[in-house]
Amino acid sequence: MLGLKTQTSPKWAEAVLQDLQTFLTDHAYNEMKAAQSAMAVINHQPDDTEFVNTMSALAIEEIQHFEMVYEWIQKMHLQLGQESQNAYAMQLRKFFPKTKDRQEKFLQKLMLSSLMEARSCERFSVLIPVLEPIHPELAGFYKDLFASEARHYRVFLEYARKFGGKERIDPIWDRLLTYEAKLIDSLGHKALVHG
Ligand SMILES: [Fe+2]
Ligand SMILES: [Fe+2]
User: Fold this and answer.
1) Cα–Cα distance measured from residue 195 to residue 184, given in angstroms and rounded to the nearest whole number
2) By C-alpha distance, which of 90, 132, 131 is closest to 112?
3) What are 12-47's pLDDT values in tens digits?
4) Half-sphere exposure of 6 (CA within 13 A, CB side)
5) pTM for this entry
6) Nearest-ligand number for the alpha carbon of 152
7) CA-based angle 121:122:126, to the nearest 5?
8) Ligand 2 centroid vs 19 CA: distance in angstroms?
9) CA of 47 to the centre of ligand 2 (A)
10) Which residues contact 146 (CB under 8 A, 6 or more apart)?
11) Per the CB 3.0–4.6 Å rule, which of 6, 47, 67, 126 could disulfide with 181?
12) Which domains does the chain have, with CATH numbers?
């Protein structure tokens, strides 16, 4: 799905079902970070009106997602709680060699955002059928999110191709997908969006 090279096991969704508190907290902070990442790339292409408009609209959407997840947390009488370390994001960033080149950093950020969107999306698709019989409304919420995160995945990847050149980005993207598949398989089945 979405070009990803490994599929999430339903065992992961079972772990989420057992610990919705941990999952929803992690999900809420993921939405917050997605908003921050979208705002952060604007500075790399500030004179491109279409890019700035797209990224600020995307950031607003992610903040709305944060609000919606937080509403679910309240509805279920849970707590937002503290943000925990995101081992997946930290490890994923290590795929790219450190660079001071601003354009390279920009392209890396676009690819990383695209991939994190794709994986969130794939995970929601695994979660939905497991949630459906027990929490049908929450399953419906994840169906809606699936559509917008799938769109975000494409937006970031298309910008990486636009600004980096498709012939240069596509082979890097392919290697990144291979790296990500190994990484996510190594993380086991924690009740985290990317855990
Ligand atoms: Fe989102
Ligand atoms: Fe997103």
Assistant:
1) 7
2) 90
3) 999 999 999 999 999 999 999 999 999 999 999 999
4) 17
5) 0.96
6) 2
7) 115
8) 23
9) 23
10) 121, 124, 125, 128
11) 6
12) 10-80+97-186 (1.20.1260.10)
